[in-house]
Design a protein that fits this description.
Shape: elongated
Number of helices: 18
Structural class: alpha/beta
Helix content: 40-55%
Strand order of the largest sheet: 7-6-5-10-11
Strand content: 5-15%
């Protein structure tokens, strides 16, 4: 295709014959795939395609369709400026977290992107492109100058000859003062560096304007930018640096191998941690993560056992029979059973991903996704089993038991399923692995379980006169611990925990009674659902660097960056 940055939506006409745009774009991919298989000695299972940062869902879907038409696996789309930034870190650039850089891609067209380095990778703050500010515009202007104002000829073959001659002359003039340019149907002409400077100046001035607009769109100033890095075929143009200093107030740096920087960065993605620039293997969950399964599991058993033993049965005249049960404790037992299963599913999925390379699941996220879905099913089944066992033990209808077992865990299950979908569809692994991201907050589990146990003790203990004060203190302390456990599930920084825990703990300690116990249990269930939602938000808004593929990687040209790619 003339420019893979601007995919066609309709069929194209090539020498009078209508050709489907998808097929035209897929043809070079097929050849590239064959060559990649020959070099790798086997099938290519990991496909990376570099795309502009400004591409939306429609164009990205189009590129995936092209790869599918070419018979390739699902490709990993890597944004060109993010790939360039990753390449800079991998080659030794020291860039602190929070710094801003600008990647200027001067290829067939021009794309300027402002990036911020975060703790988990690079974030695109603003991106602008202009087809009039790239190499094609310079080629057209140089062709007009060389042909005496006639521009490109009408014949397709002659037009191709002139275009290739002009492009080669432009590249040669960056290193030589003058070159001879053959033209179809005309005598060869001599082009010199002064002619190139004259035709390139207005085009490169547009690049400078684009940089100013992109920085302004990111709500920054030139003083906020830690560096401006130029890539693409036009990065070596002699005037580029001076014009950017003159018109945009920034001093650019030409990236080594500017034509291939984005492609090499995409190839490194997954082998290099973009936040540190160091190579990182898929992390194996540590043995101590077994605690994340055991603690909520034992807490669930302890709460359910206490709830069962301390329930009060009532029978009025052998006619009306009912049971007083701490429904909040019963709901927390179901919640912690689900948490134990989710911890087991996450650890098991991460362990399988780190230790095996199953061909049917290509990414660690895919394996973790299967583990999460299986854990949700198992945890829900255990909660339902609690309801059935309790109803049978007390001889009561199962409906109310099912309500208190399943409704509180429903938001948690929904968030976990959503995380499973995100994990399966993303090719990026969180810093430290999925196992670290989804590690159960053990401190919160212990604190909340102990708090609910003390609350239940205060509600059901024999109230001897000399024990009333201590029983009441135990209940208030239990409510306080429950409030602290809720806060520990919601926030991580110690300062925020102290700020939020003080008022909430006072409230939960003050409302401890038979009627409020259910509210306290449901409150903790909501806190756990919010904890999962925050992890989901982290994966969508602040994705981490790509995961190591662990398999053969092939770089393909159909999604190459503005500078041409490989």
């Amino acid at each position: 295709m003339p420019s893979p940055r601007r995919p066609a939506d309709d069929d194209l006409t090539v020498e009078g014959t209508a050709v489907e745009a998808l097929e035209l774009a897929a043809a070079p991919l097929r050849r590239a795939a064959v060559e990649a298989q020959r070099v790798a000695g086997g099938p290519v299972r990991d496909v990376r395609m570099v795309v502009p940062a400004g591409w939306g869902p429609r164009r990205r879907t189009w590129m995936r369709q092209v790869a599918h038409r070419a018979g390739l696996p699902q490709p990993r789309l890597v944004e060109a400026p993010v790939a360039v930034a990753g390449r800079l870190l991998a080659t030794g650039l020291q860039l602190p977290v929070g710094a801003f850089i600008v990647v200027v891609d001067v290829g067939a067209a021009a794309e300027v992107t402002v990036l911020r380095r975060g703790p988990a990778g690079f974030e695109v703050l603003a991106t602008l492109d202009d087809p009039r500010a790239g190499g094609q515009a310079i080629d057209q202007a140089l062709a007009v100058a060389l042909t005496g104002g006639e521009g490109m000829p009408g014949d397709a073959a002659a037009r191709w000859v002139v275009a290739e001659s002009v492009r080669t002359a432009k590249e040669s003039l960056t290193a030589h003062p003058a070159v001879t340019v053959p033209l179809a149907g005309q005598a060869p002409v001599v082009a010199n560096s002064g002619m190139l400077d004259e035709v390139a100046r207005p085009v490169l001035e547009r690049v400078a304007q684009l940089i100013q607009k992109a920085i302004a769109a990111a709500e920054l100033t030139a003083a906020d930018i830690a560096g401006v890095y130029c890539v693409g075929g036009g990065a070596h143009l002699p005037q580029l640096g001076a014009l950017l200093v003159e018109h945009a107030g920034v001093s650019p740096t030409i990236v080594a191998g500017p034509r291939f920087a984005a492609a090499l960065g995409a190839a490194d993605a997954g082998a290099v941690d973009l936040s540190t620039g160091e190579r990182e293997e898929v992390p194996v969950p540590p043995v101590r993560r077994a605690v994340a399964i055991a603690v909520p599991g034992f807490a669930s058993l302890a709460l359910s056992w206490q709830c069962l033993l301390t329930a009060e049965r009532h029978n009025t005249l052998n006619v009306h029979y009912w049971v007083d049960l701490n429904w909040g404790e019963f709901a927390m037992a179901a919640v912690m059973a689900l948490m134990a299963c989710l911890a087991a599913g996450t650890v098991l999925g991460s362990l399988i991903a780190a230790r095996s390379a199953a061909p049917n699941t290509r990414t660690e996220g895919g394996k973790v996704s299967v583990g999460i879905l299986a854990a949700v099913s198992l945890g829900t089944a255990i909660a339902g089993l609690y309801a059935v066992v309790f109803s049978q033990y007390f001889g009561q209808p199962v409906g109310r038991f099912l309500s208190w077992a399943l409704w509180p865990i429903s938001p948690i299950a929904v968030m976990a399923v959503a995380m499973a979908v995100v994990a399966a569809r993303q090719w990026r692994v969180p810093h430290g692995g999925w196992s670290a991201l989804l590690a159960v907050p053990i401190g919160s589990v212990v604190t909340a379980a102990l708090g609910m146990g003390l609350v239940q003790y205060s509600l059901t203990a024999e109230r001897w006169p000399d024990m009333l004060l201590w029983i009441d203190i135990a209940g208030r302390l239990g409510g306080l611990l429950l409030g602290v456990g809720v806060v520990m599930a919601l926030v991580t920084p110690l300062v925020f925990r102290l700020i939020l825990a003080a008022p909430l703990a006072v409230i939960t300690a003050a409302i401890v009674n038979d009627q409020a116990a259910g509210i306290l249990g449901v409150t903790y269930a909501v806190a756990v659902a919010v904890w999962w939602a925050s992890r989901l938000w982290t994966r969508i808004i602040r994705p981490a660097p790509p995961a190591p593929a662990g398999q053969t990687s092939g770089m393909l040209p159909a999604g190459m960056p503005p500078g041409g790619g490989v």
